Amino acid sequence: MPITDFHGDTFVAFTDISGFKELMKNDAIALEALKHFYQTGFNVLRDVENVEGFFVSDCGILFSRGGDVETKLANILDAISKINRKMIEKDYMLTTSISYGHFDYRGKIEFQGIEKNPIYGGAYVQSFLDNETGKPKIQPGQCRLLKKNLPEVVIENIPLLVEKANDKQHLYYYWNLEDPDQIENFESRYRDSYSLKYTGMLTALKS
């Protein structure tokens, strides 16, 4: 179903497949990742109310339409959670940055041999830049919301959306958990996984 034009303030998410450059070393593996990503995105956006988007290469751009600010946020987080959960079933991790602000989407403009889907607006740019170069660097599996330009929302209604002590610029969404009491244990295990990675590198170098 084609996306209708949109013009206004909303939440925009930029999500992409972690480590896709590595996957591209094998065409068949990269293609399989993209097929699963696109099919997952299509299925989720078909079922989640008032969230639309499209996918290009290893990236997806999603936005909310309809409802008040809190409803828009809840809807886009729901879509992101479902996409991440489906991707992780196949061992693919995503990184996702979300921001709030002006967003402009215009339907397809067609010329002979050329098709364009123009997208404009600060929210898209902020999400893209945060995902690519934001500080601290976003890690595989993470989904975070930029606090810049964020209107007043009742964060307590989304208990898995929290601020980290060492990062005042973002709120982190723990899409993989069911209860905020699980966050501390998850973060500990996530940090341990990085320690194990570097331990493996040291072992390889020493051998």
UniProtKB/TrEMBL annotation:
It comes from the Bacteria. This is Guanylate cyclase domain-containing protein. It comes from Halpernia humi. The lineage of its organism: Bacteria, Pseudomonadati, Bacteroidota, Flavobacteriia, Flavobacteriales.
